[in-house]
């Protein structure tokens, strides 16, 4: 029976003192990501607070008020998803590996995340959040001109313009990221045409 070949670890050369200090400075971001986890907890509290308000006033609320409350819950969930994407993807990209490879709950997008992909996903999430807020504004716009109105024509116009700018910005980020991934064109070596050798006719 053959003995298994022992696994030999690759020796990593030690960093120079200045390089070590600069590279270790990435851990200064750790408190920032921990703070975002605290913010995530605040959004969980806010979600259940708005859900409780919806449940206890479900009988008194009109259909429009229930729709606005549900859109508010969706808005909180989408912001929470954005926080998770920043916490997990940002820590994996800029601080240290999380070691989630092979884990059954590993996010599908985390396996190929980098700074460019993270920017595109964040831009798309911001567009989704802006879309929910704009939809709530359009629903409330039905009461324009009344005393109960919470929005104005100028407010609706500026919110629409800002949402359009978000979309254009996301398209620009995705286009720039695609240009960066394309790289220089590959030049294929030209192969010389095959040489045809003429055969002399056979003598009769």
Please give a handful of descriptors for the protein shown.
204 residues; single chain; mainly alpha
Tell me about this structure:
This protein has 204 residues and is mainly alpha-helical. The chain has one domain. It has 5 helices and no strands. The protein is elongated and about 70 Å long.
Write the layout of secondary structure elements.
Blueprint: H1 17-24, H2 30-56, H3 63-94, H4 115-140, H5 153-182
Helix pairs in contact: 2-3, 3-4, 4-5
Q: What's the story with the biggest beta sheet?
A: none
Structural class call reads mainly alpha
Tally of structural domains? 1
Please estimate the helix content: 55-70%
**Unreliable residue runs:** 186-190
Average predicted local confidence, pLDDT: 80
Cα distance spanning the termini: 70 Å
Number of strands: 0
Residue fraction in strands: under 5%
Morphology: elongated
Oligomer kind: single chain
List the helices and strands in order.
HHHHH
Provide the gyration radius in Å: 29 Å
What's the total helix number? 5
Give a quick summary of the entry:
The protein is mostly helical. The protein contains five helices and no strands.
């Amino acid at each position: 029976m053959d003995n298994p070949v022992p696994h030999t670890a690759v020796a990593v050369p030690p960093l120079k003192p200045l390089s070590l200090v600069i590279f270790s400075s990435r851990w200064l971001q750790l408190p920032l990501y921990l703070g975002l986890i605290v913010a995530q907890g605040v959004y969980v509290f806010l979600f259940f607070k708005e859900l409780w308000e919806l449940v206890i006033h479900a009988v008194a609320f009109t259909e429009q008020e229930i729709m606005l409350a549900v859109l508010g819950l969706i808005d909180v969930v989408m912001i929470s998803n954005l926080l998770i994407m920043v916490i997990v993807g940002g820590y994996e990209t800029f601080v240290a590996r999380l070691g989630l490879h092979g884990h059954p709950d590993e996010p599908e997008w985390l396996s190929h995340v980098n700074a460019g992909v993270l920017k595109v996903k964040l831009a798309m999430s911001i567009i989704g959040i802006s879309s929910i807020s704009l939809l709530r504004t359009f629903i409330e716009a039905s009461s324009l001109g009344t005393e109960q109105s919470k929005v104005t024509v100028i407010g609706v116009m500026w919110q629409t313009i800002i949402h359009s700018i978000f979309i254009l910005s996301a398209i620009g980020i995705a286009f720039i990221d695609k240009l960066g991934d394309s790289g220089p064109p590959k030049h294929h070596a030209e192969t010389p045409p095959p040489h045809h050798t003429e055969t002399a006719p056979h003598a009769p």
